[in-house]
Amino acid sequence: ASLGTGCDLGEDHEKQYVGFATLPNQVHRKSVKKGFDFTLMVAGESGLGKSTLVNSLFLTDLYKDRKLLNAEERINQTVEIVKHTVDIEEKGVKLKLTIVDTPGFGDAVNNTECWKPITDYIDQQFEQYFRDESGLNRKNIQDNRVHCCLYFISPFGHGLRPVDVEFMKALHEKVNIVPLIAKADCLIPSEIRKLKERIREEIDKFGIKVYQFPECDSDEDEEFKQQDRELKESAPFAVIGSNTVVEAKGQRVRGRLYPWGIVEGKCSAWKLAL
Ligand code: GDP
After folding, report:
1. Is 245 a pocket residue for ligand 1 (Cβ < 6 Å)?
2. Average pLDDT, whole number, for the chain?
């Protein structure tokens, strides 16, 4: 028999139980029914594989009608904010995914303050949410705040470029920044290790606050703790975006095909984090 405040009518009547022990189920049912909103921003100079990675992360084609600019057009291009929204469903759980893209960022010859339209956009979303929350009808507020920003760092440099430092410093108080080393297949493992170390040092030196994984509970099992440690140690993640579905060991997987072999994407691009 239950010791709670609910009236337990025995096992046959499990469904009629009305105590607070059903609270987790109610919360679960409600959130699944409502679905989740997630807004992800991607930033970094063009050609670093942002669209490819987003498509491989969510297994959709979010950039169907993208227009690529030529070099001449890019010289005068200002930073734009473009939103792509898609509804995804996985095992009955709905996600309204919004990808906020920042074409033109870091592409100009003079990149002074090119992060300004991006910080303005983030601030506007906070203000809008604050206004909606202070209003009368708070039931159906559309949350457009940016939850996370994937920042792509070029694999071809010796660490962070000045524009990377400026961007992250301008945004680190407003959004969770996850720095990524783009196109990691262009580097060999020792180069990746060196670049990661350099980036970590520079992040420290410039006082940039990147997203920190939450502490894992002390009562978690050892395997989980180990996984958590490895994940924290491997930041900034080195990523590879998949552009095709390839046949590997008799299975069809998303990956990249090279003359010398295949990089497998397992089930998501995160698994490719080195
Ligand atoms: P974006 O401008 O940052 O959105 O870059 P795209 O996603 O359009 O990618 C630009 C080019 O880089 C395309 O030809 C992609 O196929 C290629 N690419 C994307 N991701 C990777 C990667 O992880 N490794 C390599 N080697 N090439 C990539």
Report:
1. no
2. 80
